[in-house]
Design a protein that fits this description.
With about 270 residues, the chain is of the alpha+beta class. The chain contains ten helices and ten strands. Helix content is about 40%, strand content about 20%. It is globular, with a radius of gyration of 19 Å.
Length: about 270
């Protein structure tokens, strides 16, 4: 599997984390299963369905050639064959509201066709592109034009450009952030959910869960208690509860799974998960 990340122009850095591509073309064809966990980073996914197999959801419905995925708060499943070519964008958590002028909460746990939000030629341009580098250029131009005419929320923009976004886990920090920007905590919560798609507290819980994924790869199951404390959970049981809610696995089950690869909080497997 050939997974690559591509750098982002400085003018887009506040809204886009990176571009990525994932390509596999083998002589043998086998079914692949991707389990996507809760993920605080929205994404755009383009799939070359002319030359390769399409992505299907758990119901067997083929996903659009180019679709968006909002912040995810629950696990989901998708399937495709082991010959595929995908290209995508990993956005900053607050990007979708500014880029598409919608309440981001409407896209939480949703994966709509991009053309439902913008009647754009982007899917055709991406399909006709001769390389992933050309796709980076196409989408960079597209998003730069949208950003240049959009009006962001100054409070939320500053929050994610600074270090505030890592301090959303308790009421004292939320009150301090609201006071810093001279707004009420209720206003902060409303702005946050409109721009990001989930509450600040839910976002903080997902962030802690995501930090546990690489940590579990290098930790023994017997050290879960220490890992829970390192991630600032009250105890191991709270950590396990959140992990199962956001992934569908217990930490022990996750460690036992053998994935072929991953992108953000999505993991590719060769067979049905149990």
């Amino acid at each position: 599997m050939n997974y690559k990340q591509y750098p982002v122009h400085p003018a887009l850095k506040n809204w886009i984390r990176y571009f990525w591509s994932y390509d596999v073309c083998t002589s043998t064809v086998e079914a692949l299963h991707i389990r996507s966990f809760a993920d605080r980073y929205p994404r755009l996914v383009f799939q070359d369905i002319c030359s390769f197999s399409p992505i299907k959801d758990a119901k067997g419905t083929v996903k659009p050639i180019c679709y968006l995925s909002g912040v995810d708060t629950e696990p989901s499943d998708a399937f495709w064959d082991s010959q595929f070519s995908h290209f995508g964008v990993s956005f900053q958590p607050h990007a979708l509201h500014l880029l598409f002028g919608i309440n981001a909460a409407e896209l939480t746990n949703q994966m709509p066709d991009i053309q439902l939000l913008d009647k754009t030629e982007i899917p055709t341009l991406l399909l006709n592109a001769k390389s992933h580098i050309e796709r980076v250029s196409i989408l960079s131009d597209y998003f730069y034009k949208r950003i240049s005419t959009a009006k962001g929320d100054m409070v939320i923009d500053h929050l994610f450009q600074g270090d505030w976004a890592d301090r959303l886990g308790n009421e004292k920090n939320l009150a301090a952030i609201a006071s810093h920007y001279q707004i009420s905590e209720r206003q902060l919560q409303r702005k946050f959910k409109q721009n990001v798609g989930v509450s600040a507290r839910k976002f903080a819980r997902i962030a802690k869960f995501e930090k546990s994924l690489p940590a579990l790869s290098s930790a023994d199951y017997g050290s879960l208690t220490q890992l829970a404390y390192d991630l600032e959970y009250a105890d191991q049981s709270h950590f396990i509860k959140d992990f199962k809610l956001f992934s569908g696995f217990s930490p022990y089950e996750f460690v036992k799974q053998s994935s072929l690869g991953s992108e953000s909080a999505s993991f590719i497997y060769t067979e049905e998960l149990t």
